[in-house]
Amino acid sequence: MFDMRLRTVILTALLALWLFLPLPAYGASSAATRAIDDAEATSQDFAGQNLQEAEFSNNKLVGANFSGANLRGIVFNGVDLAGANFQNVDMTDGLAYLSNFSQVDLTGAILTEAILLQSNFKGATVTNADFSFAILDKDQVAYLCAQASGSNPVTGVDTRESLGCA
Predict the structure, then answer these.
(1) Can you give the pTM of this predicted structure?
(2) Pick from 102, 140, 133, 103: which is nearest to 118 by CA?
(3) 8 Å CB contact between 112 and 129
(4) Structural domain includes residue 21
(5) 141 falls within a domain
(6) Exposed, middle or buried: residue 137 (CB in 10 Å: 0-12, 13-18, 19+)?
(7) Quick one: which H or E segment has residue 96?
(8) 164: which residues sit within 8 A by CB, 6+ positions away?
(9) What CATH code is carried by the domain that includes residue 117?
(10) How, if at all, do strands 75-77 and 135-136 pair?
């Protein structure tokens, strides 16, 4: 009887320690992503390239051509993409944070489940783009809804519906 109570107390104490003591945190390796530095971004012609899971950080890519590129899982962090061509890109699961997409042509682009926070889309063309389940700032959604039209030729999704326009 005594052994059973002692065992219960010890197990309860161990469980409490396990639940309430901070454990070390481990981050995922970024080895899967390929960082694109300024030297590689000088040509600014990425048309049709496979840039899946590539990472651009603080690059100036004004007017760059990404048309038809595979941008699945790509990361744009603080990147200036003003006037870039994103026609028919697949940016599913991509991330763009603090990036400038002003005057970007997103005609036919697929941006499903992309996270596009604190980024500027003023003057962007979004005809036939698919933003299904994408996360954008509320003011950017309102702006894009005013321009949105058509349906994506690949996914068949209506652009206005994918943005949640009223």
Answers:
(1) 0.78
(2) 140
(3) no
(4) no
(5) yes
(6) middle
(7) strand 95-97
(8) 141
(9) 2.160.20
(10) unpaired
Q: What is the pLDDT of residue 41?
A: 58
Among candidate residues 69, 103, 99, 98, the one with its CA nearest the CA of residue 84: 103
Q: Which residue has the tokens 């009887």?
A: 1
In the chain, the number of structural domains is 1
Identify the residue whose tokens are 């990361």: 75
Bigger pLDDT: 36 vs 56: 56
pLDDT band, very low/low/confident/very high, at 166 (cuts 50, 70, 90): confident
CB under 8 Å to 143, separation ≥6 — which residues? 121, 122
Structure-token pair, residue 85: 């061509």
According to DSSP, the residues that pair with 125 across neighbouring strands are: 105
151 versus 25: which is more confidently predicted? 151
Angle at 109 between CA 82 and CA 121, to 5 degrees: 35
Encoding tokens for residue 26? 């481990």
User: What does the block give as tokens for 142?
Assistant: 């309102």
